[in-house]
Amino acid sequence: MARILLTGATGLLGGAVLHEALQRDDGTAWVCLVRCANADQGRQRVAGRLARFTDPFTAQRLARKVEIVPGDFTQADRDNDPRLDDVTHVLHLAADTSYFGGERLFRTNRDGSLALARRAARMRHLRRFLHIGTAMSCGADAGPVVSEGRSDPAARHLVPYTASKAAAEEALLAELPDLPLVVARPSIVVGHSTLGAGPSSSILWLVRAADRLRLLPCAPESHCDIVPADWAAGALLTLLLKPHLAHDLYHVSAGRPSVTRWSELNRAFEACEPSDGVRALASFDLSDRAALRDRFREVFGLDSPLKQTMLRATRAYYAFCALDMTFANDRLLAEGVAPAPSLSAYLATCLANSGPIVDQFADDLEMFVRAPQAPAALPQAVVA
């Protein structure tokens, strides 16, 4: 019987995976490593995330099925809790996703993943260590169709986050070659195909903002590789639990069969929210910062720190949109995973329970708040 250790249970994908798995009620044991003072507090954190996928009563009932181990994956190699010894599968979803984390990102995402993997190497029945990376580990110059393969360590990255995730993969391969490692690289996870924006509005706000701005850093026929959280969760469970896999690296992505085109999204928005019938998307050069700023001010205003941060986040996400990348998922489909629905197909579901765009940005706010600088060291005489 499988005994699964999950990190990141309180995040969007972790919650989606746990909700899907616990509903199956197949006897699999789930152990969640959660940052908390005690197991009761950790269980409430997990229940709070599960409540985004179901009613509060059911969330509490499902959370009671989970074994909570208080801890931090970045220090897991020093964790001798015997409840971890009999784990058969590890699903490592936890990560620092900040765009401005700097060296902290590498300490968490690379060094922390290594710490967890070292602990996993001591698990005597371990069958699989499923490490969740990001499709953008490939770097910014890999497009337009990115194959499922190892990344160039010298690849150029737009942000430190994707560089840190690529570094984590390289470090795991180099330092723990005997680990039963499988890497899954999700593309852009937006909404839920049946619950819409309920589980999270992360990145959905950006898609809505682009429609409202009528401004893109690419041609309207460009692609955006987007998948819903519930489909991604199902794909991860397949990669985690299928007894035999043909490969050790997969894209959890829309790929060529389901990739979203901005022009299709434009038509889907018009069908959901009819305008004057002229919903034209204009292209602009991302280097023209004034063009985006002026249009953003016109549509949303720049009269608060939240909106100023949202503009910065829009510019950051637009840099990825401008790459026009599709992440091939041939390997994933060959494992029996059905193609993902395109965002255009479930956009109406997302919009049905969406609030104001600026309010939805709150789900991603922490990613774009710059960490305060540490104070300079005091002179030794003063320290003494």
UniProtKB/TrEMBL annotation:
Residues 6-235 form the Thioester reductase (TE) domain. It comes from Methylobacterium dankookense. This is Linear gramicidin synthase subunit D. SUPFAM superfamilies: NAD(P)-binding Rossmann-fold domains (SSF51735). Pfam families: NAD_binding_4.
